Structure formats: C-alpha cells, structure tokens
C-alpha cells in the first residue's frame, strides 16, 4: 500500500494543499517517510494528512488494486494527532425586537368637592360680579354661582356648584321631575368662564327628581361659547345642555354623564327655536395641550346628538374618551325610524375627532365602550360628504372595544360617513365593531412618516362597501402590500405563506409582500360579495420565510371562508414603515377546496381618496 502525505492549515475545512510525496508500507502496514517535510519542518498552524492506495486486490474487500481511500480525517504534527476544530453552528435568524403598544390606563378617580348651592332656575341679570353670597334675598342662580366659584382664593377650593331647587320653582317639570334653567338674556347668554381650577358643576346633587337622566337642564342660545372651562381639575357632570356645548381649555378636567342636544325626556333632538336646519351646538371640545403641560382630560358617559359639527373634538394629549353615546338617545336607541337614517332630513351630527397624542378611545370593559351610531347631517344631495364617525389625527392612541354603527341592543344601523379615518401613527386599533355600509370602514390617509406602526387587531368590519382603503398620500409599498396568503385548509389545520406581490395600477413595479416573523390574524367571513371580518379566530406568527400555521376552533361550515390581515414585527418589512404596521384585509376569500391562486384571485380595487 502506498501512502501520500499532504500538509494543511488548521481550520474546519478538509483540504489537501500540497503533496509531499509517497511511501510504500510494509506487509504489516507500517511505513516511514524521510526527507519529505519542507526545510525547517512544519510551520505554525500546518499539519499532515494521509491518503492510501491499495497495491493488491481485495485489500479493500470487493475492490481491485489501485483503489484510493478518502483523505484522513485526523491531522498530525510533531505532537501527534491534532484535535479537529469544531464546525461553527450556522447563524440562526434573530428574534424580532419587541415594540411598544398603547395599553389601557386607569381612569382617574373623581375628586370630592365642596358646595355653592343653586336654589333658583331664574336668570334675572348678566352681572359679572353678583355672587350667591351678595345676591338680594339669597337667590342663588347658576350664573351667580359661577361668578362666586371662579373668584374663590386657592385655600377655599375645590368648590362644588350644587343644586337644591324646590318643586315650586317655575322651571320644574312635574311630569319628568326635572328643572330647566333658561339663560334668558338674549344679549349675552354666556356664563363667566370657570377660572382658577377645581370648580365642579354637578346636576346630580339636586335632591329628589328622577333617576333616569339629568335632573338639571340649562338652555341657552348664542353664537358665543356659553360654558368655558379654564384651569385644571374642574368637573362638569349630570347636566342636560340645550343650545350650547362645553369648551375645555386646559388639562386634568372631567366632563361626564351629561346630555347635549336632547329634549328633557331624552327621546328627541333639541333644536334651537325648533329649527332642524340650524346647528344645535351640541358639542364637547378641548384645546391643544401646550408644551410642558399635561392634558389628561376625562370625557365619560356623555350623550351627544344633533350638531352639524363634530360631537367631541379632543385636541388635548393623554386624555380619555370612554362610555359616550354619540348620535343616539341615552338608552342607545335612535330618535327616528331606521328608514330615515342617512336620509335627506336626518340630523344625528358628527362623530368624534381626536388630535394631540396618547388619548384612549374606549376601553376593555363594556362600560368604557363608546357607541357612535347613525352619525350624519341632512342634505338633499346624495354626494354630500357625510361626517366621520371617528377621526384620528395625532398618534399613540388606543382605540379599543368601540361600536361604530352598532347600537347598544346589537342592531347594526351603520353610520352615514366613514367609520374611522386614520391619519395617526403608533396606534393600536383593537376589538372594535365598524358598520359603515355607505363608505369605507377604515380610510388610511397619512404619508410616509404618519401612518407608521398602526396595528389592527380583532376588529369586526361589517357591511362596508370598502373595508380598508388607502389615500393618495400612502406610498405604494404600503397601499399594495398584500396580507398573508392561505395555501391549505385541511379540517381545522390552516397553513399559509407571505402574500403574493402587490400589483399597483399604471404599470408600477410589483410590491414585495414577503413578511418574515409577521403576525397573521385569521378572520371568518361568509360567502357574500362583501369583504368583511365577521369574527376574529385568532393569530399566528410567521417564521423567517413568512410561512405560518393556524388551528381553527372548528371546521368551516358550507359557505364560510377565511380572510387575513398581517402585522409586521420588524422595521422595514413594509419599506420605511415601523414594526407594528398592519396591512389591509385579504381580498381573497379562502374556502376549503377552492383556494384562489395569485393568477385568478380577484382583488377589490384600491380606492385612493
């Protein structure tokens, strides 16, 4: 047998770099090679390997003479056998970093105030200095109580304007058991602003009366803002306001359990002088939070209906909009029949507009859910742009568990305009019901920076003509990024991949929709022509290649199918967009035995508004 010695360097690859010669082994297989090493011997890091060739047939059973072996696995130097370096493991794909999402925050507890007591529904003058303490005969009106409260020094605050009107008061309604304060001066209905902070006006302090709604109603009509709240830690609660709204200019305030724009019985919309074509001014608004100041206003359990403007316009930061009913009666029903809704005479008003950053709209409990139903304005022109149910303009929002277009009783009435118009970023839109038959359920309008990292999770979109659409300022790389694709449904086992490349109109380049590590949400839909998400069945996490699996809670019934939404977990999965950015709903309805392919899949048109 003839052996060949070859030198190599230490690393994990088997190599024969140079042949140093051959030697013939003895009959016992031993051998010695001389004068084959380089001058000076092996250098640092060098070693020897061998390879043998047989000289007789059968030395390797079944093989003839001249058969050569493999290269020796062992390496040798003057010290003997060298331990073979371990092959380094292949690099594993990295786990995506966690990214922050808004979470529900505890609503602050209402502070306990002290009292200035209104005992008359009259409004005899518009004096800006007469207080309840200085009024003739001890007559304490709402106007005088406000003048007195705003003038209190800090050591006498907080102050509560409470009510104790007798049933003999001219403003008392014995049938409804309510009291009506009419701001009678036509020249100036405006009350003095609530200045200095820590002032409460609470209609529920009125003894007796009904328990099914506000006992105290205040009626005014003026182009001026009648009730303006300045300062912090003010509370407006338990009032029925007719002909005007509430303006809040600073932070840390509570506006809760008020009716705006309703008759005293809560069954019909209140119109100024009975004119349904005039704005009834039933609105709640606040101001932008200045730098280095806090917002954190609470708007809770209010009923607002009938204004041609937006019912709630919240510009402050880190506020709460929870438990409100917009466009409905206090019991959640609508003040007209279903046939009149969104008609030429229907006035429910606008919905909710949120600016600033960090505001929470809705919450995890039923009590924190906002109902925004039937919002619309009268117009004989069918092309009139109807008001938005919910407009989001800033960012860092939590929009959770709201019913848009669904009543308290669970009836899907819808809204007359868009469900949600989203021009925000870094927000979580979760577990909402959106019924918007005439318009898009969600309209994405921002550009590259705004609109990033908006996550959709568990939202039910029902009966919308366009479920999720993208405005003209949205880049094609997002607008046409396809959600996950389902490739197999076998009983309850579902598997899929990243979506097919999106195809923008006009011959633009296809949009790569590869989605590694993305979260895939699977929805149930029926077989009608509308793209809906009738039930969220859960989520799956894709692997590095975008492949994923999911187990259904049950097998699909006849006519049922699945749709998907994908949410990225890495920056740049959708070009220039942050982790947490969700796609549109899959246009394809995936059903067992009839999975659409990318060649014959029918896509809804992307509506660019």
Give the strand line-up of the largest sheet: 6-7-10-13-16-19-22-25-28-31-34
Low-confidence regions:
599-609
* Alpha carbon gyration radius: 37 Å
SS strand fraction: 25-35%
What structural class results from the helix and strand content? mainly beta
Percent helix among the residues? under 10%
DSSP, total strands: 42
Discrete helix count: 2
Mean pLDDT, rounded to whole units?
89
How many distinct folded domains? 4
Largest sheet at a glance?
11 strands, parallel
Choose one word for the global shape.
elongated
How far do the termini sit from each other? 84 Å
List the helices and strands and how they pair.
Layout: E1 2-9, E2 22-24, E3 46-53, E4 75-77, E5 80-82, E6 115-118, H1 142-150, E7 159-163, E8 172-173, E9 178-182, E10 199-202, E11 216-219, E12 227-229, E13 235-237, E14 239-242, E15 246-248, E16 254-256, E17 259-260, E18 284-286, E19 298-300, E20 303-304, E21 312-314, E22 320-322, E23 325-326, E24 352-354, E25 360-362, E26 371-372, E27 390-392, E28 398-400, E29 403-404, E30 420-422, E31 428-430, E32 433-435, E33 440-444, E34 455-457, E35 460-462, E36 466-470, H2 476-479, E37 485-490, E38 493-497, E39 519-525, E40 535-541, E41 548-551, E42 561-567
Parallel strand pairs: 6-7, 7-10, 9-11, 10-13, 11-14, 12-15, 13-16, 14-17, 15-18, 16-19, 17-20, 18-21, 19-22, 20-23, 21-24, 22-25, 23-26, 24-27, 25-28, 26-29, 27-30, 28-31, 29-32, 30-33, 31-34, 32-35, 33-36
Antiparallel strand pairs: 1-2, 1-3, 4-5, 8-9, 37-38, 38-41, 39-40, 39-42
């Amino acid at each position: 047998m003839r052996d060949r010695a070859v030198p190599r360097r230490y690393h994990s690859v088997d190599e024969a770099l140079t042949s140093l010669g051959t030697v013939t082994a003895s009959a016992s297989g031993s051998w010695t090679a001389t004068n084959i090493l380089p001058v000076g011997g092996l250098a640092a890091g060098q070693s020897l390997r061998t390879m043998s060739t047989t000289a007789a047939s059968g030395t390797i059973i079944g093989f003839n003479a001249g058969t050569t072996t493999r290269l020796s696995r062992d390496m040798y130097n003057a010290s003997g056998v060298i331990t073979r370096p371990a092959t380094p493991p292949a690099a594993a794909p990295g786990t995506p970093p966690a990214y922050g999402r808004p979470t529900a925050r505890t609503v602050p507890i209402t502070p306990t105030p002290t009292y200035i007591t209104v005992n008359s529904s009259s409004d005899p003058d518009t004096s800006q200095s007469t207080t309840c303490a200085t009024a003739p005969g001890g007559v304490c009106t709402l106007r005088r109580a406000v003048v007195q409260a705003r003038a209190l020094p800090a050591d006498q605050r907080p102050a509560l304007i409470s009510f104790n009107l007798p049933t003999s008061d001219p403003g008392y309604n014995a049938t409804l058991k309510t009291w009506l304060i009419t701001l009678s001066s036509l020249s100036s209905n405006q009350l003095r602003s609530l200045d200095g902070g820590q002032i409460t006006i609470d209609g529920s302090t009125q003894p007796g009366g009904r328990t099914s709604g506000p006992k105290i109603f205040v009626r005014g009509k003026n182009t001026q803002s009648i009730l303006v709240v300045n300062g912090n830690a003010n509370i407006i609660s338990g009032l029925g306001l007719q002909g005007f709204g509430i303006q809040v200019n600073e932070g840390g305030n509570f506006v809760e359990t008020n009716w705006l724009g309703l008759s005293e019985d809560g069954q019909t919309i209140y119109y100024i002088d009975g004119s349904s074509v005039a704005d009834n001014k039933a609105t709640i608004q606040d101001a932008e939070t200045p730098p280095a100041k806090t917002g954190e206003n609470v708007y809770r359990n209010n009923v607002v209906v009938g204004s041609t403007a937006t019912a709630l316009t919240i510009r402050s930061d880190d506020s709460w909009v929870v438990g409100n009913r917009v466009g409905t009666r206090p019991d959640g029903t609508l003040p007209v029949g279903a046939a009149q809704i969104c008609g030429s005479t229907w006035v429910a008003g606008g919905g909710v507009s949120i600016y600033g950053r960090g505001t929470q709209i809705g919450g995890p409990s039923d009590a924190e859910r906002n109902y925004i139903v039937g919002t619309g304005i009268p117009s004989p022109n069918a092309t009139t742009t109807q008001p938005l149910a919910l407009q989001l303009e800033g960012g860092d929002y939590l929009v959770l568990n709201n019913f848009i277009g669904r009543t308290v009783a669970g009836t899907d009435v819808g809204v007359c305009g868009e469900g949600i118009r989203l021009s925000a970023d870094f927000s979580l839109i979760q577990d909402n019901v959106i019924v918007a038959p005439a318009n898009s359920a969600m309209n994405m309008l921002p550009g590259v920076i705004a609109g990033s990292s908006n996550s959709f999770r568990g939202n039910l979109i029902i009966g919308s003509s366009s479920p999720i659409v993208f405005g003209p300022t949205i880049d094609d790389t997002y607008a046409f990024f396809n959600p996950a694709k389902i490739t197999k449904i076998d009983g309850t086992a579902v598997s899929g991949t990243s979506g097919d490349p999106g195809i923008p109109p006009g011959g633009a380049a296809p949009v790569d929709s590869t989605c590694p590590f993305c979260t895939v949400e699977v929805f149930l839909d029926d077989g009608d022509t509308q793209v809906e998400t009738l039930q969220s069945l859960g989520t799956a996490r894709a692997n590095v290649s975008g492949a994923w699996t999911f187990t259904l809670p049950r097998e699909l019934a006849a006519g049922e199918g699945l749709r998907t939404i994908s949410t990225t977990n890495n920056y740049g999965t959708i070009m220039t967009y942050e982790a947490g950015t969700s796609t549109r709903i899959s246009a394809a309805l995936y059903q067992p035995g009839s999975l659409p392919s990318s060649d014959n899949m029918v896509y809804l048109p992307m509506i660019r508004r």
